[in-house]
């Protein structure tokens, strides 16, 4: 900007027509155009990616669910393999160095003495027994997913040795291997339960919100009736009603259906409120005028408009399913042996004397804690990302 005197003595004001920081202005314009042209799912992903805790939780859950595909490979022992010489053995510490020398992953062997005064087995590490772990080795035979005979494991104990990373139970079974096998059952119960719950919740909530009137009143009164029952006692009552002669597979599906049948009212109300707000929109009116039936309007036009919210709701509901199965199995009313789940493993830790003497039996509760927290953190991130236009994002 510059000034110069004019003929009449007044100062003329000259302003440069060039924009200030033109490159920054163009870059900002491109970023804004990229954001507003992106699809809802892409914007949702951008916003979810900025939620660091939610991303870490998603990675942890992905690892847990990936492990369910290869449980037999990860577990060093079979789910029912017993080591009768190491009953109630404490966890063996995984080490890398022995007497200042790098050996690699190994554990020390155990010396066991029977304490006749306390009537317990006392185990002490024997530093003279260095037992290196073997990787991608042959061990206990198993049927992969119940179909293919195999005996390859990710890691195995040394020849003639043991590797009890989380100790053993009252029958000498490796707790780590049983937790790995239990992961498959406990996590799939949550997913199957959500399928049942969402099918009922979306159907009833969609009918209630779209039609309104007397249908809406009847469905809402039914939802209030179901919600008025205390959840855990009702779970216990329905689980106790399952026939005792059912096979473990039937009990598994029975528990899954019970969990799903009692978890849908909250979702149904959320779907109803969304449909009440959306059914008067122009795109719904246009679909009706073009001859679309109620089922197509709900399924093709209304539900997809808030699918992201449904995904967030599902993510926040799965932990409740997992906790429900764990609680029922812990009380002896859910899954029962020979099925192995986290709740079944915790069932052995009911006796306070056992917990006081063998506290590692409580380690089966650690994956429950991790998974429930991870689902809640990821659900919070998804819930924030489900409304991607609430704030600017990349």
Characterization of the model:
Strands 3-4-5 form a three-stranded antiparallel beta sheet, with no helix packed on it. Strands 1-2 form a two-stranded antiparallel ribbon. Strands 6-7 form a two-stranded antiparallel sheet. The protein is built from 15 helices and seven strands. The chain has helices spanning 22-37, 40-49, 52-67, 71-74, 175-211, 213-228, 231-240, 248-261, 265-278, 282-289, 294-302, 307-330, 342-347, 352-357, 365-385; strands at 2-5, 11-14, 95-98, 101-115, 120-132, 134-144, 148-156. It is globular and about 85 Å long. Helices cover 54% and strands 15% of the residues. The longest helix has 37 residues, at 175-211. Mean pLDDT is 84; it is low at 389-394. By secondary structure, the chain is an alpha+beta fold.
Q: Report how far apart the termini are.
A: 36 Å
Biggest beta sheet attributes: 3 strands, antiparallel
Which class best fits the helix and strand makeup? alpha+beta
Helix content: 40-55%
Concise account of the structure shown:
The protein has 394 residues and is of the alpha+beta class.
Q: Topology, please?
A:
Layout: E1 2-5, E2 11-14, H1 22-37, H2 40-49, H3 52-67, H4 71-74, E3 95-98, E4 101-115, E5 120-132, E6 134-144, E7 148-156, H5 175-211, H6 213-228, H7 231-240, H8 248-261, H9 265-278, H10 282-289, H11 294-302, H12 307-330, H13 342-347, H14 352-357, H15 365-385
Antiparallel strand pairs: 1-2, 3-4, 4-5, 6-7
């Amino acid at each position: 900007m510059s000034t110069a005197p004019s003929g009449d003595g007044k100062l003329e004001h000259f302003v440069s027509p060039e924009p200030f920081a033109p490159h920054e202005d163009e870059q900002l314009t491109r970023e804004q155009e990229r954001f507003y042209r992106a699809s809802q799912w892409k914007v949702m992903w951008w916003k979810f990616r900025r939620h660091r805790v939610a991303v870490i939780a998603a990675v942890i859950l992905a690892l847990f669910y990936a492990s369910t595909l290869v449980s037999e490979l990860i577990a060093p022992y079979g789910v029912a393999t017993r080591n009768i010489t190491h009953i109630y053995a404490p966890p063996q510490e995984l080490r890398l160095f022995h007497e200042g020398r790098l050996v690699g992953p190994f554990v020390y062997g155990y010396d066991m003495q029977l304490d006749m005064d306390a009537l317990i087995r006392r185990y002490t590490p024997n530093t003279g027994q260095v037992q290196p772990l073997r990787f991608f080795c042959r061990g206990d035979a198993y049927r992969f997913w119940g179909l293919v005979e195999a005996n390859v494991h990710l890691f195995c104990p040394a020849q003639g040795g043991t590797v009890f990373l989380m100790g053993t139970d009252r029958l000498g079974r490796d707790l780590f291997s049983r937790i790995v096998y239990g992961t498959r059952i406990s996590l799939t119960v949550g997913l199957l339960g959500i399928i049942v719950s969402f099918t009922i919740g979306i159907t009833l909530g969609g009918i209630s919100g779209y039609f309104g009137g007397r249908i809406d009143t009847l469905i809402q009164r039914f939802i209030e009736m179901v919600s008025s029952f205390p959840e855990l006692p009702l779970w216990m009552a329905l689980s106790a009603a399952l026939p005792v002669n059912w096979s473990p597979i039937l009990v598994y599906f029975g528990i899954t259906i019970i969990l799903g049948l009692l978890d849908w009212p909250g979702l149904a109300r959320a779907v109803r409120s969304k449909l009440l707000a959306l059914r008067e929109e122009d795109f719904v009116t246009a679909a009706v005028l073009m001859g679309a039936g109620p089922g197509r309007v709900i399924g093709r036009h209304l539900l997809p408009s808030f699918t992201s919210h449904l995904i967030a709701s599902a993510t926040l509901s799965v932990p409740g399913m997992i906790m429900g199965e764990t609680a029922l199995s812990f009380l002896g009313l859910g899954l029962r042996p020979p099925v192995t789940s986290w709740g079944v493993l915790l069932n052995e830790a009911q006796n306070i004397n056992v917990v006081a003497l063998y506290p590692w039996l409580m380690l089966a509760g650690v994956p429950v804690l991790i998974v429930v927290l991870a689902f809640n953190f990821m659900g919070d991130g998804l819930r924030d990302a489900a409304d991607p236009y609430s704030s600017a994002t990349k």
